[in-house]
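Researcher: Next entry in the queue.
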Amino acid sequence: MTCERTRAMLSGLLDDELPVVESREVARHVESCAACRAEYNALRAARAAVRDHLPALAAPDLLRSRVVAALHDARRTDATRAAVPGRSGFWLRQIAAGLVIAVASSAVTRAVLHRSPAASDIAVRDVVASHVRSLMTNHLTDIASTDEHNVKPWFDGKVPFAPDVPRLDSLDFPLIGGRVDTIGREPAAALVYGRRRHVINVFAWPERDGPRADGAIHDATEHGYNVLRWVRGDMRYAAVSDLGLAELRQFVAAFRQGGAAATVDPDRPKR
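Model: Structure for this entry, 271 residues:
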C-alpha cells in the first residue's frame, strides 16, 4: 500500500466506505506512516469543523429527487456489470457519491447565500474561520518574530497597506509574528499575539466605504470565540481569541493606543 494510493482512499476510510480488506490495509498504513497519518488527522479535523460550523439546512425537493435518481442509476449500472470481475461497482458508487456531493454542495452554498446576512455578521464569521484555520493547520505565522521592526516591514509588497504593529509585551501580550490572510475577498494582515496559552489574532484590512473617524468597539461571540471589531481611518480591525472578553478588551485598548501613537507621531521612539 503506497502513500499515493493511501491518500486517495483516506476519505473512504474516514467515512467507513471502503471494503473490509482495503479498510484494514489503509488503516495499517496510516498507523505506520507519519505523513499519511497527519493528512488523515487534518482531514478528520476539517470534517469536524464543517460539521460544527456549517448550518443545518433542509434539502429542497429538487435535490432530493436528484440524489434518489443518482443512487438508482448507480444500482442499475452495478446490476448490468455484475459479471465484470473486480471492483467496478465500488468505483461507480464512489463516482455517484461524488456527483451527489457536488450537487449538494452547490445547493447548500446557494441556500447559505440566500440568507443574506449583514456585512458585520459576514466579517465576524470570516475572522473566526480564519482564526480557527490558523490553529488547525499549524500555519499561525508566515514570519515568526517578537520584534515589531521585523514584522511590520515584512508586510511591504504583500498587502496594499502598512499595518500597525504595536509592541505590547510589557503588558503581557507578547508579539508572536504575522501572516497574510484574507477576509472576504480582501487581503488582510494577521498579527499574532499571545496571552499565557491563548492566541490572539488581529486582522487588518481596508475599509472600502471611505475614511472614518476612530470608531467604537463592537463585540460579538461566534462558536465560543470572542471578537472585537473597530474602524480607524480607512482600515478595519478585528481581534479574535478564546481569551475572556475582559482581557481581550484590555488587549484591544492597548493595541489601539499603541497604533494611534505610531500613526500620529511616526518619529516618536518606540518602547
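Model: The chain is about 50% helix and 20% strand.
Researcher: Noted, moving on.
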